[in-house]
Amino acid sequence: MRTVAVAMALPCSLNRYLLLMAQEHLEFRLPEIKSLLSLFGGQFTNNQETYGKSPFWILSIPSEDTARNLMKRTVCAKSIFELWGHGKSPEELYSSLKNYPVEKMVPFLHSDSTYKIKIHTFNKTLTQEEKVKRIDALEFLPFEGRVNLKEPQHVFSLLEDYGLDPNCIPENPHNIYFGRWIADGQRELIESYSVKKRHFIGNTSMDAGLSFIMANHGKVKENDIVFDPFVGTGGLLVASAHFGAYVYGTDIDYNTLHGLGKASRKNQKWRGPDENIRANLRQYGLEKHYLDVLVSDASKPAWRKGTHFDAIITDPPYGIRESTRRTGSQKEIPKGIEKWYTEELVPWHPCLRLISNCEQKLSSHTARRLITMEKVKTFENRDQYSHLLSDQSLPYQGHNSFREKYFSGITKRIAKEEKSSQE
User: Fold this and answer.
1) pLDDT at residue 13 in the model
2) Does residue 84 contact residue 159 with C-beta atoms inside 8 Å?
3) CA–CA separation, 156 vs 82, rounded Å?
4) How many whole angstroms separate alpha carbon 301 and alpha carbon 136?
5) Is 49 helix (H, G, I), strand (E, B) or coil?
6) How many helices (H) and strands (E) does the chain have?
7) Which of 231, 406, 403 is nearest to 323 (CA)?
8) pTM (2 d.p.)
9) pLDDT digits (tens, 9 = 90+) for 188-220
10) CA distances (Å), 347 to each of 228, 325, 356, 357, in order?
11) Are the CB atoms for 255 and 295 separated by under 8 Å?
12) How many of the other CB atoms lie within 10 Å of CB of 147?
């Protein structure tokens, strides 16, 4: 895995941009944006305003090119705008716009240009009359071009934030923003790469949106070599290949790896002869990025010493939806551990640094975490067993700990207790 330097010199003056974020996978959004900014020469600084769960984020980014590159990758953000003004009321917004440098506006407002203004509201719907009224109130801006609603050269947006509570919508917005639209994100990838449309899938095929998020967290880029040690049906390889990486995977399940045996789809008994990982990449025009897959036991690595991959992206098995086979030493699983997760259970290794740790809720009593780590030093012989010497590795002995608890009745008891506490 590569070592990526995160400290870098920044221009003295950064432009401010407004990100419109999607309202899903909330914990994954910030690490994705941070990773992509780092990948394209930016850095997430302390003056960034992310507003927690709000879809409106204000970022300082070195250039418009960086902003466009960010949007060519992100699936967590919908759109990005060059921010011209911001206020908590119309009066504050207009004052902010009047203070925005005219020389930055002029290139997009001259007489030979065409434009349109769009109104976007979050958590409230406006009538057409209300939208027109808001657009007319912006007549003080030095627009000299012609309005073109179908194919404008420049698009401007007025965005109003009415908070997160649909049951308590305020009369007036909490924040109002105005800016020039720069680019949209890659939200369409979620649909175009949907598992429902994929040729070869299994019971645990990774959701397309999460696959792209994981590839972005891993800063996968063109010509990287990406490895998935629990490759399954190859969903993570598809996302990495889409971003230009060459992909390779291993799995212990021969039938899944080579697309043999019973099918996972409803009303289909057996898998077809061309249902395999290579065929999935071929479906999306990505076959040239396919290196190979290998039947292998992850508990017994078959690799020579040295650096082989730029990124390792994987979704380890939980042992609760697909049949699993365990090899290697049979260590005793600690009993009586009621707390499913603590920070001490996060994997640790002297060669790796924790970048982010995000939770995805699966149900009222289960969740999984996306953990991103970065290589910070070259592996040495003395590092081989150092992580086993740490006390934090003792309470957790692989996915079987989760599997045993899941089937022991603890999940039902937790759900019952939560239901009782809410009554």
Assistant:
1) 56
2) no
3) 9
4) 66
5) strand
6) 12, 13
7) 403
8) 0.85
9) 999 999 999 998 888 788 999 999 999 999 999
10) 17, 22, 12, 11
11) no
12) 11
